Amino acid sequence: VEGDDPTGAIMAPYSESDPNMKYMKSMRDDDGSRLDLEEELYCAWPEVAVNDVPADERDDTMAQQSFYMFYSTMVKATKEKAIGVAVSDDGFRWLKRGIAIRPEADGPDNGGCARCAVVKKAKYTEGG
Questions:
Q1: What separation in angstroms does the CA of 100 have from each of 4, 19, 116?
Q2: pTM over 0.85
Q3: Shortest CA distance to 19 belongs to which of 5, 31, 9, 33?
Q4: CA 58 → CA 7, 52, 97, 128, distances in Å?
Q5: How many CA atoms lie within 13 A of 20 on its CB side?
Q6: C-alpha–C-alpha distance, residues 20 and 9, integer Å
Q7: How many angstroms separate the CA atoms of 3 and 11, rounded?
Q8: Which pLDDT tens digit goes with each residue over 59-88?
């Protein structure tokens, strides 16, 4: 499977200077707000989650896209390792939505967020 990027990649790091990514500066989120994408140094180790709620049964409180891709990246400006997210309706054409998880200075991930895993219906509870 090849993506929209000229390299054939499904997901490429966002770079403002890349002429193939100029359209991304004017991208809008589902609510119409302008996306403020940060430049990335790489995109790796993708994990895809499928929204198994049928599209005609989704209400405003639910995720609307059919597929969500979480991937490891590094923010160019800060050199932070973070987890990015992209969405897709068909699993082939992906639209970036920005950074989903970034390290917190006083948290357990202060060295960065690297590889990710998608676990269905998992819940995080503070302290265990």
A1: 22, 25, 11
A2: no
A3: 5
A4: 35, 10, 20, 32
A5: 11
A6: 12
A7: 7
A8: 766 667 788 899 999 999 999 999 999 988
